[in-house]
Amino acid sequence: MKNPHLILGVLEGDDIGHEVVPASVQIASAAAEKHGLRIEWKPMPVGRRALDTHGSTLPAGTLETLAKMDGFVLGPIGHRDYPKGPGAINPHPIMRKHFNLFANVRPTRSYPDIGCLRDDVDLVIVRENNEGFQPDRNVVAGSGEFRPSEDMTISVRVITRKGSERVARVALALARSRRKLLTVVHKNTVFKLGCGMFVEECLKAAKDFPDVRVNEVIVDTMAMRLVRDPQNFDVVVTTNMFGDILTDEAAGLVGGLGMAPGLCIGDGDFAMAQATHGSAPDIAGKGIANPYAMVDSTRMLLDWLGRRKGIAEAVAAAGSMEKGLTAALGDGKARTGDIRGYGNTESFTRAVIGNL
Ligand code: ATP
To answer: Cα(199)–Cα(280) distance, rounded to whole angstroms?
Structure first.
């Protein structure tokens, strides 16, 4: 029998990260206790506070220490507000690359009464995480964006067969565990080689999943269909930047960024919980941030680690978290203002714990 024990890093990030990450740890701890799962939380500095205390937003040794754990919770990073300087880097692309977390799994689901534009959304977008159009991810050194002259900028998009195939396999396996439908989103009408290769690799991988139906949608059509008929999608797989944009759009359908969780995974048994939203400096320190996205990302982490490592207690704890979250979302006094509630971060957290 597996020892029901997980070691997880806690990196709060910036701004509302100092509010929504502690809420996630509190809730996950209560759920773990209920099911006899021991979680050793290891807080580590990252972001603006780490810059002030350690001279770097990603202090030396962080990656090596994290590598000895089962996974970690990363709060939102407000890198746009970092002062310019050598230690002020955006840590999360480095983490995704270092741990080879090439698939960003981002679910979107409607809940009643919280101001969703649609009441029938239940889909997951799997976004390729480590190449594509993100200039900080598609090269080993330097940037995938450069300026040969004052009046010209060139941005490079990298698509590889391996990168496409492995993210397709994650999405196909996920579709197999859900409604068995995969939609490949691309623009191979224009990016004939790049998106062409992505689609080719997705279709090749799909041959190993004959029980999963696969269709294709062009990205601009997808932007429209997400609004018009989101109920017709189950799992969607796409390249990095299309995924970045479509996941925010999907969040808009179901109450906004506070409702958009995510889990970054790769081939190994190691994962990073990271909500889709940024650090929202405009509402930081007020205690009103919606912790749902970060808490649900943490729930996904427990569920995924539990299944990968055969720790039933972790899967059960995640199940309790889901129950608590659903109940808290249904409680107008507990939920936060962004989702038509009268509560705050603390009341939502209490409501989840009370309903685990
Ligand atoms: P990034 O590019 O780093 O993802 P962003 O430009 O998408 O950041 P966010 O920081 O995610 O911006 O936030 C956009 C706005 O959404 C915020 O100003 C805030 O009002 C709202 N918001 C984001 N996250 C939450 C949350 N958890 N709870 C409530 N409101 C939120």
So the answer is: 35
